[in-house]
Each structure stands twice: as structure tokens, then as C-alpha cells.
Amino acid sequence: MSIYSQRLNPNSGYLHRFPLDILKIDRSFINSMHENEEKLKIVKVIITLAKTLDMPIVAEGIETGQQAEILRKLGCEYAQGFLFHRPVESRDAEILLQKTTRVLTDYGV
Asked: What pTM, to 2 d.p., does this model score?
């Protein structure tokens, strides 16, 4: 089960009861975090929350090296978006993963 950052209510005392396995940062926060201090603060809090809960975190909608670099510096573990590859069907994704082991640093960030 995943939880998207835009659905996360920090006042939810019951958050720890959910069987979560990953925390995702929605692309709506990533999209303008380099221009919008509020969105950047939210991204920082989401990453801190994931680390505190010892959960992996993935940022969605990475389109620029600048976004990838900000996330790398903040300690975001995983990222997905057009910067890395266009969306593909699951069978094609399996083939792609077998052929490549690209990570964030392969893109110079």
C-alpha cells in the first residue's frame, strides 16, 4: 500500500496504523518546488517524515536535472519521471530494468 503526499494529513494521529510500505511525493509538489518555497518546505517535511518512519520515499514527476538535484540533496531515495524514461507498459518496464541499472547519479546529478 502506498500513500500519496497530497493525501497526508499531518494531524492524523492514526497514520501509524496504516500498513504503509512507501511514501510518495506527488508531482504537484515537485513541479515548482524550485520556484515555490512553500512547496519546497512540504517536500522537505515529507522526506523527513519518511526517514523518521524508516520508509522508502519516491518522488514522482521528475522532469529536470534541477529537480533531481534538489531531491538528491534532500535525501530522496527514489525518483520517477520523464527525466529518466517515458511511461511504458509493465512488460516493457521489466525488459528495460533488465537492460539497465541507471540511478540518479547516472544523469549527472
From this structure: 0.69
Please enumerate, as own/partner, the contacts of 37-44 that have beta carbons within 8 Å and a separation of 24 or more.
Answer: 40/70, 42/5, 43/70, 43/71, 43/74, 44/74
How many Å apart are CA 22 and CA 50, to the nearest integer?
Answer: 8
Cell of 57: 520515499
Going through the chain in order, the beta strands assigned E by DSSP cover: 2-4, 22-25, 57-60, 78-80
SS3 71: helix
Segment 54-100, tens digit of pLDDT: 889 999 999 999 999 999 999 998 999 999 888 889 888 887 777 66
